[in-house]
Amino acid sequence: MTRVYISSVINTSADSVWKVIRNFNCMPDWHPAIVESRIEGDNPPDQIGCVRSFRLESGGYVRERLLGLSDYDYSFTYAIIDSPLEVENYVATLKLTPITDGGRTFAEWSADFDCSPEKENDLLEQIGKNVFQTGFDSLKNRFSN
Amino acid sequence: MIMVAVRRSTVIEAPISQVWDILRDYNGHDSWHPAVEKSSLESGMHTDQIGAVRNFKLTGGEHLREQLLSMSDKDHRFRYTIVESDIPLTNYLAEIELKPVTDCDWTFWTWSSKFDTPAGREEELSELVAKGVYEAGFESLRTKVKTNNNLYSRFDLKESRTPIEGTAMIIDHYGTSEEFHQAKLAAPPPEPGQVRLKQTAIGVNFIDVYCRTGYFKLLTPPGVIGMEAAGEVIDTGPQVNHLKPGQRVGYACPPLGAYTSVRTMDADLVFPLPDYLDDATAAAGLLKGITAEFLLHRVHQVRKGETVLIYAPAGGVGRILCQWANHLGATVIGATSSEEKAHIARAAGAQHVILPGETSLEDQIRKITKGHGADVIYDAVGQDSFAHSVAALAPRGHLISHGQASGDVGSWDISSLASCSATVSRPNYIHYTDTPEKLSLITERLFKAIESRIINIEIGQRYPLSEAALAHRDLENRQTTGSTILIP
Fold it and tell me: Across-strand partners of B183?
């Protein structure tokens, strides 16, 4: 099992960040690597178990299932069902925590997955940098003063 | 009673390892938190030992006892509870947790708690905890980290790159004290991880004699012997974060090379000295004090009510063992050779002293302990004493052989130890002191013991460094009392 963990500080309240990212179908609104998203079977995007299917800017398609969503914890957890990434048992969590000092947000994005050892470094880079950090950078830009 | 929850969090602009280093020192919060005037640990426990109770005196005069419930270096988290307090907080359970901010190498710090307060006082007390304790702590830790980092970067730039000439006592061959001769010796500028010291006092230990004669091959001549000194930091190389120029420091460990006025060495081996410990006392007592610390707290953890037999109780390490073991609540028995030394041992805290007499050592011990024997024996004599020590042990006793003044212990059949289910330890100084982490835990407790006068270090003789030969002669001829130091 491999783990990737990225965290960041975003210059606005957790409520404001959560409003942007809570909708499981809205990743194209805030993540530059994702261009199109829909929820399969027209289910609501906050129904636990719903599946989003989105297209990457680079071409491939990804299907992910929502495993958990908590407004109280500002967090959601999802699993990859299909993707161009050569990963198995991929489960990721995105979570926000309010920083009481200054009203900012501590954001964490982590994933656990299995992969072949020779692919590991490549995948850590792709997921950690191109997906997670790129997403946080875009949120940081959106809320920079 | 009203149940209250408080949570405060902040970001410290420093790597998590740096912040955690400061916070995980459970008993060190008085060094940065403005509300804590003094912190001390109860009953000889370690600062990171689960169950340890720290005793706070707050700047407002109140007292507080808090117990460490859990700590994890992996999760950068610890939990603690108030066990007794002048402030009416009950069922108080608090947690400090750090997480890394990976994209800029900062630290996210959460400090939270739940507790009960008397009805009507919940707001006042929540505010006290949230602002007076948590937020005030955030600010002063932030300042401490910033000041440290500024100091280090400033001194790195100022660092001088030229050798500094000093005076050393050198031996060209193994031999008598006549081998010492004085010579100029330059201390090179510190490399990464090194520090350069101006030494003001150098400790003389019996092991120095063994190094000089070649009995211990810790040095191949020509070279400089000596394992212990105190002084001031001249400059540091890159990657040294715990020392700064002008700071008072000490060390007590191999590699050899202390008999000199300036020295460049690994910074990991060097630690800051507290204000209440002057350079001469540090040079006189570090090696012996560190030895006593790990013998009494790590090789064996001496507890109240145990009977402890200490050989050579009037010697350097022996005196400290007597003082400290007595303070720990043990029954201390010293075994020595003359009435004069017995007097010193009694003054140091030995409740009983046994001298060579008509009956054997083990018989005398059995008589004093009403047949039980000694639970712990600190034997530095070796060849002449070992068999007596085994015979004097209580059932499941612990024999700690930490020296061999009379010669090697020799070969022993392990099955002979079954007569009392004995445990035998042969500790080596180096294995208790070879990392800064191990060393700092030891020196922390040692310094507190010195500060609170549980132990006192007696400087018996001072010689100029150039008189090292005379100092060795006096030591070998048993003409010294207490510790001996050399002054460069």
Answer: B168
